Amino acid sequence: AGSLGAAAAQSGRYFGTAVAASKLGNSTYSTILDREFNMITPENEMKWDTTEPSRGSFNFGPADQIVSHAAAHGQKMRGHTLVWYQQLPGWVSGLSASDLQSAMDNHITQEMTHFKGRIYAWDVVNEAFADGGSGQHRSSPFQDKLGNGFIEHAFRTARSADPAAKLCYNDYNIENWTDAKTQGVYAMVKDFTSRGVPIDCVGFQSHFGTGGPPASFQTTLSNFAALGVDVQITELDIAQASATNYASTVNACVHVSRCTGITVWGIRDSDSWRSGDNPLLFDGNGNPKSAYSSVLNALNAA
Ligand code: G3I
């Protein structure tokens, strides 16, 4: 197939990108988006600071723009993200524990209800684990006031709000199997699946340096999948975007049957949150880079 989305679809997968609502009117941007990608993650528009800037007052306008675009172009949507310690409006961190619990429940319920039927999978909780060797949750308003159970509680609330949506845990630096952070997330998913806590998928952000993915990445994906969840690569970008590193990353996914899709974190290098690294598949003019062909070939070979 001649586009990333169509090539991924041949093996039942999707190929997506992060999208900024403010760029949809740029024709270079939207032409590539609609030609190449069949899954969209809003880069910022579904985060708490945009969707509920003051308590109980919701703003879904920017996200609605992206969701409408996706519907008009046959693209699926990943919801990103309901519970995250960043891009959190100031009012959230000032709440008492019981107010925070009800604010979290209400935020999950209102946002999922608004988009019901239009989101394939939600990043219910994002980046809850600490960096480094602890393998434990990181400090956040949720962790510090609600305790370890906040993640389970968020997933249960999400399942009630939209029983048809897939519910994912999403994090970075969990791609190398032996890392303490990877093991911490693995233990949580294992515990959830064994106790029937609703979780359907794990997102591996995959923000890689010039070295590309860790050698164990495929092992990590298949070990998580063996717990009975789907796995996805959710925010892929690789410093300097070597064709080899991109191909290894795609191959790690396509060799795992429950790795259901790959999303890159932006279209052109100029769209990237780390634009100095030129980490994406298209250059600033919208021309495909060598990494583009290597990804397309790896998808077509799957
Ligand atoms: O919209 C405001 C604008 O009004 C303001 O004038 C301007 C001044 O700084 O900031 C604009 O907001 C910025 C926003 O992106 C939209 O461009 C924020 O400052 C900036 O912090 C924000 O960065 C986003 C970052 O998450 C925030 O943590 C990046 O675009 C986004 O790519 C990045 O995405 C995250 C994923 O959600 C989770 N995983 C890691 C990934 C990379 O950090």
UniProtKB/TrEMBL annotation:
It catalyses: Endohydrolysis of (1->4)-beta-D-xylosidic linkages in xylans. The active site is at 235 (nucleophile). The keyword Oxidoreductase does not apply. Its EC number is 3.2.1.8. Residues 1-298 form the GH10 domain. It comes from the Bacteria. Keywords: Carbohydrate metabolism, Glycosidase, Hydrolase, Polysaccharide degradation, Signal, Xylan degradation. Belongs to the glycosyl hydrolase 10 (cellulase F) family. This is Beta-xylanase.
